[in-house]
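Summary of Year 1 activities. Much of the first year was spent building the evaluation harness for sequence design. The harness presents a backbone, in tokenized form, and records the residue chosen at every position. We chose the following record to illustrate the format because it has been used consistently in internal testing since the harness was completed.
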């Protein structure tokens, strides 16, 4: 086993050790806040360095997971777990770490900073295990385990006032885990080999037609339970709209991407015939969900719901692009997700600052950015980058994805484009409201602008996104 394979396990262990250190931090409240945030920053930066090191050794032209590493889990029955990585999973993992790094300063103002930071690190560890999982057993373990910190984060630090929303959110996602468990047990029963059952090999199983429908139907339902699909989107939307902490908001809204990633791993291009029929139904449901949620986001006045709507529409677009009968755009999807998550994280951090200042001073939303030039500039820049202006890798790679979707099915591509335009219009509408100075009175109270330190920090992120206009790997030294 070479050192590159050891890195894969370290990517899971490093944030988990950070979770243990943060959880056991003891001191005065002031020093405790500083200590837990320092631990989190160290763990996140350590993983970013490991990911960058891994990127330099990846072969971008090689298909499938690289650096596969297997470990024996149990002797009887013999169950092995396997981990691997490719550029698609690496770009998603890297963006998740940067999202946490951008959102982490808001932990200082949280009522429960120790719990917030430690659970965020635990969820990061579970997410890394999920992204690196190459076999069905480790995939299921991390797929289910990440629900535990997510559920506690929402309940204890998300400031969600209605407990029934939290309960329904957990049950909805947990049902998907139960279905996936049944599917994995069925697949293990049909496996004639004692070797590890890799995710990429599931599509090659020869099953009776009826059971094939049941198993693949179960896979789709289990993984789609993470995606806000109509009419079940409400359980996720209600939580996203109610969560007040930007760290919790971003972590909860990473769950839909885990559903997308899972379908990509379970469904290579050579899927059984039964799965191809199910994919057609999935496309119909996905497009209906995109249109419905985009429309709700346009008329909803809550800024967080608009961000949730925008994230959901793009998440489903990535899903449909990844399930096209070609591997050519998978790298484009990875680059888009990288830029997309960072842009949304910055917008959420800025929106949280606006919300806190608005509540503190009891101000109207209209024109609230007019007297905060640094905040106004960054919010405008990242909003324009989000809606498709050529400011980051999101623009050119989304163009490639949509081109493939149009060539695959023109009507499907048209409906997806309409959904994206509507969701983008909701963000532009919010920006217009925030900068509309018609209601500003001379000498009126205004919100505090963001600090110069935060301005330049987020500004550097914006510059990096502009430089990595097409391929972020070139900027990151891969």
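For this record, the design step produced the sequence shown next.
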């Amino acid at each position: 086993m070479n050192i590159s394979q050891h890195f894969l396990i370290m990517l899971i262990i490093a944030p988990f050790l950070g979770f243990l250190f943060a959880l056991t931090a003891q001191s005065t409240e002031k020093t405790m806040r500083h200590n837990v945030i320092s631990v989190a920053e160290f763990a996140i930066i350590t993983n970013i360095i490991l990911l960058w090191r891994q990127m330099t050794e990846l072969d971008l032209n090689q298909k499938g997971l690289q650096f596969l590493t297997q470990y024996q889990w149990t002797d009887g029955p013999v169950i092995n777990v396997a981990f691997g990585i490719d550029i698609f999973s690496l770009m998603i993992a890297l963006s998740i770490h940067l999202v946490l790094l951008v959102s982490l300063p808001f932990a200082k103002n949280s009522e429960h900073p120790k719990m917030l930071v430690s659970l965020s690190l635990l969820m990061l560890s579970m997410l890394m295990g999920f992204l690196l999982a190459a076999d069905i057993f480790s995939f299921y373990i991390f797929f289910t385990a990440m629900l535990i910190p997510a559920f506690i984060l929402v309940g204890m630090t998300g400031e969600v006032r209605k407990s029934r929303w939290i309960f329904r959110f957990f049950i909805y996602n947990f049902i998907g885990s139960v279905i996936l468990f049944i599917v994995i047990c069925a697949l293990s029963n049909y496996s004639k080999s004692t070797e590890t059952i890799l995710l990429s090999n599931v599509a090659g199983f020869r099953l009776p037609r009826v059971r094939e429908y049941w198993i693949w139907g179960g896979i789709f339902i289990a993984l789609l339970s993470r995606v806000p699909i109509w009419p079940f989107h409400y359980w996720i939307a209600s939580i996203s709209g109610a969560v007040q902490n930007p760290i919790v908001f971003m972590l909860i809204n990473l769950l839909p991407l885990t559903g997308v990633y899972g379908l990509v791993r379970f469904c290579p291009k050579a899927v059984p015939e039964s799965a191809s029929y199910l994919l057609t139904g999935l496309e119909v449901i996905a497009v209906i969900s995109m249109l419905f949620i985009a429309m709700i986001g346009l008329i909803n006045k809550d800024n967080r719901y608009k961000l949730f709507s925008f994230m959901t529409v793009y998440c489903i677009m990535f899903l449909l692009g990844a399930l096209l009968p070609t591997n050519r755009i998978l790298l484009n999807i990875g680059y888009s997700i990288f830029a997309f998550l960072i842009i949304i994280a910055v917008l959420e951090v800025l929106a949280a600052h606006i919300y806190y200042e608005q509540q503190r001073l009891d101000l109207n939303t209209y024109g609230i950015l007019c007297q905060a030039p640094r905040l106004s500039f960054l919010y405008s820049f990242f909003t324009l980058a989000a809606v498709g202006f050529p400011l980051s890798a999101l623009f050119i790679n989304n163009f490639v994805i949509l081109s493939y979707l149009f060539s695959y099915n023109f009507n499907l591509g048209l409906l997806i484009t309409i959904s994206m335009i509507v969701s983008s219009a909701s963000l532009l509408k919010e920006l217009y409201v925030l900068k509309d100075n018609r209601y500003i009175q001379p000498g009126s109270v205004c919100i505090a602008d963001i600090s110069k330190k935060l301005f330049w920090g987020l500004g550097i992120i914006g510059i990096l996104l502009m430089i990595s206009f097409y391929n972020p790997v070139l900027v990151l030294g891969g």
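The radius of gyration is 22 Å. Quantitative recovery figures across the full test set are reported in Table 2.
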